[in-house]
Amino acid sequence: MRQTQGLLRVVLFLSAFMAFSARAENALPAKVSNNQDAQVLLKKIQSAAQRLNYSGTFVYQQSNQIRTSRITHILSGKNEIEKLEVLDGKPREYIRNNDDVACYVPEAKTVLIEKRITRDVFPAILAANPTDLVDYYSVKMGETGRVAGHDCQAVILEPKDKLRYGYKLWADKATGLLLRAQTFDGKNEVVEQISFTQIEIGNIDHNRVKPTFTNTSGWHIENSVMSQVNLSGWAVTPPPGFKKIQEVKRLISDTQNTGTSATQHGVTTQREVSQIVFSDGLAAISVFIEPGSQSRTEGSMQQGAMNIVGRRQGDYWLTVVGEVPGAAIRQVSNSIEFKSK
After folding, report:
1. Is residue 230 classed as helix, strand or coil in its secondary structure?
2. What's the sign of the alpha-carbon dihedral 190, 181, 41, 47?
3. What is the predicted pLDDT for the residue at 252?
4. Of the candidates 175, 181, 180, which has an alpha carbon nearest to the alpha carbon of residue 201?
5. Are the C-beta atoms of residues 126 and 281 closer than 8 Å to each other?
6. Is the CB of residue 211 less than 8 Å from the CB of residue 102?
7. Distance of alpha carbon 50 from alpha carbon 53, whole angstroms
8. pTM for the whole structure
9. 208-241 confidence digits (pLDDT tens)
10. Before 239, cis peptide (omega within 30)?
11. C-alpha to C-alpha distance for 275 and 50, rounded to whole angstroms
12. Which DSSP symbol is given to 261?
């Protein structure tokens, strides 16, 4: 849950250059201090999401779409246990125990078991050491305000290039927990935001992270067959600052229903998909590679901060997805090469 193309600051040099120079000596330490304070706050935001117990309802807004979810997070010893409930539309529930995730799909009476690949679920959206961000983002303290009844301090991350978005993050002053995240494009317009509307921090009953669907007798358990794989045959050039964090292969099940009744049966087929994941610590870009036997139409699309490009390359179909500007996704897509052994 992410992301603003930063503002380019224009420094105006007027005739009072000497007066400006005289003030600069005093202004510089304050700027450095502001930057250091912002980095300290980012570290606190990252730590709070992993180590605190909390439960709250948040709203995710992407363009004209709004979705509501509830997240409950417990740290039990060294184990992170998390329950994410989708409150709008068809019910979905995700139970995470460290990197193991179970998705409950009640209308299909199915539990999907898989491994977590990226670590960017709100409010734990910082996946890297915050000090690594300063090479690609200008980091500074923002204004103070209130979110979900809590006093907050904002921190602003302005991108130093046009290949990533900018962000404004609002952290609870008392605990550092991220309560709101806004993503901005190159026009400084909000393209995506996530915000708690209600939040409890501290003493959370461990029973609240248990699955709602306790009686799953007769449900189908589907394991996502995933394995680490060496995809060195594929050369991909990500934007500066994006590092490769995962190379995995998985089987994806496609089910086509037959019949028209409520009890209709489905024909399930499986296809193998490889995935390469890059991240700069805030945003992630995934390259999906699969055999190109299916009939598909090449093209691109945007959903809020998310940009997607799909195209055919030889005998393969490539899909590039990321919460980065379209220029970054196109750059990645155009860079992909397959080096046959």
Report:
1. coil
2. negative
3. 73
4. 175
5. yes
6. yes
7. 8
8. 0.82
9. 999 999 888 999 998 877 788 899 899 999 999 9
10. no
11. 26
12. S
